[in-house]
Structure formats: structure tokens, C-alpha cells
Design brief:
The complex is a heterodimer of chains A (about 210) and B (about 220).
Chain A (H helix, E strand, L loop, with lengths): L7 E11 L2 E11 L4 E5 L6 H8 L7 E8 L2 E3 L1 H4 E4 L11 H12 L5 H7 L15 H15 L3 E5 L7 H16 L3 E5 L12 E4 L5
Parallel strand pairs in A: 3-8, 3-9, 6-7, 7-8
Antiparallel strand pairs in A: 1-2, 1-4, 4-5
Helix pairs in contact in A: 3-5
Chain B lengths: L1 H13 L5 H18 L8 H15 L6 H5 L2 H7 L4 H30 L4 H28 L7 H11 L1 H17 L4 H27 L5
Classes of the chains: A alpha/beta (about 210), B mainly alpha (about 220).
Organism (chain A): Algimonas ampicilliniresistens
Protein name (chain A): Cytochrome c biogenesis ATP-binding export protein CcmA
Keywords (chain A): ATP-binding, Cytochrome c-type biogenesis, Membrane, Nucleotide-binding, Translocase, Transport
Chain lengths: ~210, ~220
Amino acid sequence: MTPRYNIRLNVQDLTLSRGDQTLISDLTLALGPGQALWLTGPNGIGKTTLLLACAGLLTPDSGTAQWIQQDSELSSREALAYAAHRGPERSGLTLGEELAFWQSLNGDSLSLEERLTSVGLAGRTKTPVIGLSAGQRRRLSLARLMASDRAAWLMDEPLAGLDTDGRALVTSTLSRHLTDGGMALIASHQPVPINGVEALKLVLEPGA
Amino acid sequence: MMGAILKRDLQLAARGTSGTGLSLAFMALFVLLCGLALGGSRPDLGPGLLWLAATLSALLGLDRLYQPDQETGALAQMHLSGASGLAIATAKSLSFAITGLAPLIIATPLLALLLGMDGPAIIGTILSLIIGAPAITAYASVTAAILAAQRGSGVLAVILTAPLLIPVLIFGTEAANTFASEGIAAVQFRILAGLSFIAVALGTPATVAALAANRGPA
């Protein structure tokens, strides 16, 4: 069986700063299909900044982050889906309207109800977004990742606010994605267990 | 793609997050106060006052066009989901025209009666507002996109947009005034239409560029 995705990430001499503070200097790493990278380190060290740079949402001071599929470069928006720490949902909408919007942008093959069921939010279509708990918002953001059909998933604190079931859901979803040949970059303070794959660990340290 | 973004904006507007009611109330108050300050009805000043009222009221809700979606990171996510800058700018501009501008134009005849304007003057004002609407929308979209990353930039948006709208305001008022004598073929209407075309031609790429420049960290 050929894997569904085939993607590589090449980070070359990446230097990132916020304001006048250099957060990451000369970072080089390479990631291939089926691999996961666990980014960890103290608050404000630049985990999110690194994710943003990989997502192409932030211009690095120097160096490059390239996405490669079958030897040709892919734009970041074709390569990845990004689950930010704070989701893009608007408080005026219901859960169903919000998720249906992102499904239609991404051309998701599953129906709204199927997608909600897959993240344990079945029957919540009419719940206003403003009434969702932190854990339910994480589940919604997981649903957006799954709806995107992108090879690389960038996840910022995917376990924050999740209960035991929710953490198990993240583990099983991620494991399946990596088995499909996908890739994951995870910024998290706690390890994210993945079945069958040992995540590479990158610890960002001050002055490193 | 564009339809989905527009639909979402209309859903949000239906929940009252676009400030349409506020703009309508401001416009009514503005016309009412003008009537009081000018001492009785002044139908000759009607078209000018209505143009001023509609423009300023529409600009009031400008900080709700891109700013909330910028703040939550929704604009960046739309970009990553494959929506082009042009699709986002067009959908947002249409939503502004529908939820921010159209209600004001619909309210215009009622307010015109308040000012004691006659039939041709009212029709002239409405037509000129409709023809000038693309210009108001395009310039409004540019400043809203530039200020998307600034919190509480509502007044600044009005200040930045108003100078761009001066020619539109002049010819809009003149077109409304000449409608009674020369009809829709008056040169003022044609200039107004030309101003709208220029605004859309300049405003659309400028909006796309401003959104791209603001894409950074959410």
C-alpha cells in the first residue's frame, strides 16, 4: 500500500526574532513522511514563532523552511494545516456553521455530522461557539485539521484543556495521520503520545 | 470559496455583529440633528446631507470588516485553506456593501421625506448613492484592510477614508442635484460611475496587498 501523503520539510539555517529579540538562530532540521517533531521549551522561547515560520505566515530573518513533495517545492499553504493555540472561530456563529465553513473552504469529503462525530462532538451542530469549553475548542480545531486533507499538521498545544478521551482522540488521530505518510510538528509542554512512532524531540533553550 | 466567505459574513451580520443597526441609528440621528441645526426643512441641502450621512454612517462599522477575523487568525487560516486574497477581498467588500451600505440606501427615502425633499430629488439621491456605492465600498475596504491589525481603530479608519471619498461626495451630491433637470444621463452621473470604476480598480489590489502585509503572527 502506498502511503497517502509524501512530504518532506527542510529547515535550513533558520533565524527568527520577535521585536529585537532573537529567538531561534541557525536552526537546521529535516523531517520526512511519517515523522513527528515535538517542540518543547519554556514560555516565550519561540515555539509558536517557529510554527508560524514553517507555515509561511512569518518571514524569517534569514534561512528557509521548504516543503518538498516528490522533489518539487510546495507552497506552505498547499502542504500544511495549522491548528493555532487560539482558533479562528467567531463567537457569533454556531459550531455547525463554523465547521461547515472550514469544510467548504477545504473541500472536505465528509459531511458536517460525520466530521463532528469523528471528534466526539456529535449532535452539537446548534451549540454557539461562545458556549464551547476549552476542550471542545481543541476538538473543533482537530476537526479542522482532519478536514484540510493536508500532509503536514502544525499543532500548537493540542492537548490543552482536553480530558482523557480527548487526549486519546488526539493520539489515535495523529497515529493514523502519520501512518498515512503525514507529518506533524507539535509545540507542547507535555509529550503527545503517538502509537508506533517515536516523536523527535526538539528542546528550545535560552541562549542556545 | 468566495461564496463561503460571503455566506459566513452574512450569518455573522444576522447575529448583529456587523453593526448595521448602529449605522442606521447614527444616520437617522445625523439627519435629524442637521434638520434641527439648520432651522426647519432645507430641501435644497437634502442630497448633500444624505450623502454625508450615508458615507459617515457606513464608515462607522469599518473596524468590523477585517479586524475580528484578523484577530482570531481566521484570515490567515482562510489563506492557508487556499482562499486567494482576491476572493477574501471581494467577499468581504460584497458583505460590506450588503450589510453596511444597502440598509442605509434603503433608509434614504424615509430620511429624505424628513428633510422635505421632493420626488425627483429623492430618486436622484438614491441613484447617485447606488452608483457611488462601489467607490465607498472599495476605499472602505482598503483602509479596513490596512488597519486590520490595529485594535480600536474605528475613528482612524474614518479619518483615513474620508479624504479618499471627497471627489465621490462632490459628484454624488451634484449628480443628485442635477437629476431633476437632466436625468440619469447627466455628466455628473457619468463622472460618478468613473470614480467608482477607478476606486474598484485601485482598491482591490491595494486591499489584497494590505491583507498580505498583515498576515503575520495572529
